[in-house]
């Protein structure tokens, strides 16, 4: 049993959840997001823990709504998951390997848009 307040998932599981309407929060920097991102992803950069928590709360999401957090490799999204849990969110997923694994798995991305 995992002690983390989130569920690590692979690209296939994330794709299935996204198809069911689960929201994707991309925590990378705007230039990274602008290069490529998951089509449904919303950019909420994790520049600082407090500012990230505030920006997440400004999305007005239900605290029990499922959320997938993604970054480039999986480290920043892990921190984002932990901050989300502290902020009271309870249905949290972390895309293991981040966008790097998403691309490697051949999943679709949007390129060159913000």
From TrEMBL:
InterPro entries found in the cross-reference section: Rhodanese-like_dom, Rhodanese-like_dom_sf
Alphabetized GO MF terms: thiosulfate-cyanide sulfurtransferase activity
Species in which this protein is naturally found: Candidatus Chlorohelix allophototropha
Protein name (Swiss-Prot/TrEMBL): Rhodanese-like domain-containing protein
Residue ranges of every copy of the Rhodanese domain listed in the record: 18-111
């Amino acid at each position: 049993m995992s002690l983390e307040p989130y569920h690590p998932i692979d690209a296939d599981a994330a794709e299935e959840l996204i198809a069911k309407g689960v929201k994707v929060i991309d925590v990378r920097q705007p230039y990274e997001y602008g290069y490529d991102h998951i089509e449904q992803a919303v950019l909420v950069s994790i520049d600082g823990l407090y500012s990230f928590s505030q920006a997440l709360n400004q999305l007005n999401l239900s605290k029990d709504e499922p959320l997938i957090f993604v970054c480039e490799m999986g480290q920043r999204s892990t921190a984002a998951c932990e901050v989300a849990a502290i902020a009271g969110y309870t249905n949290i997923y972390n895309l293991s390997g981040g966008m790097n694994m998403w691309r490697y798995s051949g999943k679709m991305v949007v390129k060159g848009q913000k």
